[in-house]
Structure prediction request, 342 residues.
Amino acid sequence: MSSDELNAVACAIVAGHKGILAADESGSTIKKRFDSIKLESTEETRRRYRELLFTTEGIESFIGGVILYDETLRQSTHDGMSFAELLLKRGIVPGIKVDQGAKPLALHPGEKITEGLDGLRERLAEYKLLGAKFAKWRAVIEIDERDIPTRYGIHANAHALARYAALCQEAGILPIVEPEVLMDGEHDIARCEAVTSQVLEAVFTELSAHRVRFEDMLLKPNMVIAGKKCAQQASVQQVAEATLRCLKRYVPAEVPGIIFLSGGQSAEDATDHLNAMNTMGPHPWPVSFSYGRALQAPVLAAWQGQEDNVAAAQKAHLMRCRLNSLACAGEYARTMEGPDHP
Ligand code: 13P
Prediction:
């Protein structure tokens, strides 16, 4: 794919206030999600769950892309259509998580480095044949009182993100660059802003050094938010202002879209924060979503692994997708929550 085509894929994903459904949980992460509804994680239960998500009628109006996991990209609907083909037919762009998870960073206790660069060129070529048009790589940055993250921890992760993004562009696959500053911990919103700033600065410096074209990527950042255990939680307005301030300082206007991760926020909070940012526009880039938990938690709760609950689960799914798309337009209100709202 040429540069123009990669940019077109990025723009198509976020056009019309659409966002991404992150359904790329690894085997161990989806097991945790299924444990919460007491469902055994098998290849078939995972396939049935992803089929429920991808066949929900109407989501194509709100969802421009879906991130898949390796196993899911190789799976099909019960009547034999590959998930990638199904999504493409519905006008939704299929993508693939290509990192192989965050492992402890040697000699840096408390920090992690994402692995998966070795052999990535060959894996990208195969994923392209299987229908993936974009890829995702997640770097994980933890905040801790003990001078964590270190400068080196940030640099190592930014460097790996840039090597991944360059390999994607070489392969003609759109890279989603995801540096996630975790919301675990006791830090306040100011510390999150300082660390997120350092991380974004390092990421764009490395992307530039690796000759990655900013117009041919999407950025998937965390919002600037207080740690879950911080006594002083910030208001919706404060989160929106701090997040935009930080992004506007460090993210070039050439980037065709910002698609936030939800990172452990409740479904309602993630939508509310996104909405608040979009009431404060215009911004240099579309400000949208690429949520995993914030889209799927209500679906799993409604489904409970039961065939009889599929319709209710798909209804919950469609509603979350629609509310987040409204938030991309700055037209969401908390009063729209609840089963009876149209
Ligand atoms: P969450 O929205 O649950 O953070 O997941 C998004 C994602 O893709 C994490 O890599």
